[in-house]
Amino acid sequence: MSNTPDSILPILLVEDDPSIGEFLQAALAREPRYELHWEKSLKGAYKAWEKQITKAGGPFALILLDLGLPDGDGQELILRLRNGGKEQTLIMVLSARGSEIDKVRALDSGADDYLTKPFTIGELLARLRAHFRRRPLDLPEATPMTIGSLELDDLGHTVRKDGVSIALTPKEYQLLRLFVLNQGRILSYQSILRAIWGEHSDEQAHYVRLYVKRLREKIEDDPGVPQYLITEKGIGYRLRDPHIV
Ligand code: CA
Description:
Blueprint: E1 9-14, H1 18-29, E2 34-39, H2 42-56, E3 62-65, E4 68-69, E5 72-73, H3 74-83, E6 90-95, H4 100-108, E7 113-116, H5 121-134, E8 145-147, E9 150-153, E10 158-161, E11 164-166, H6 170-181, E12 186-188, H7 189-197, H8 206-219, E13 229-232, E14 236-239
């Protein structure tokens, strides 16, 4: 047991429906770990985002994001944050749009989770716990992680191989980071899927193979004969340091 209390996790809620906003505000006020800031528009969200960084010295830990907002689509915020490399902030979409296409679009552009309205507070809190368990937010102090000639920098969200930068998409970066944090260990398809695409991602099972293929094309000298990302037949994959095999 640690003596230091869990750090407070600042959460930004972007929601124009007052009944949902008030409900979430009341529910999260009972959770001492979370500090909720509520904005009702995209414009307000962007302002709050900048203010949080200047005022608190770091970004929000998580954004609860409605898609249908009075001044635009929440999807715009996902793209803007992810394209700006703001990868460490978790984004959970809360939307009445329950179609597969809306979910895939949000998740593909970098949302970490998607909860369809109406949802129960119990489920929302359980998902928050799961996300924070999986990704402890100690990133500002992160130092570059290395394996072989690969170097990951969480602050700049860059990957270098032998000192040369490799461009990765946010999801590719997340996946590589997961492997680096678990280097030498076999990760099953299922555990990778859950860690990167969330707990309810069974329909995205083929993503794992697809993204491993893409990563290999970027980090391996010869993607056909991988030296880093090794296939463990029928189980999953393992990242190893080719220099110490
Ligand atoms: Ca709305």
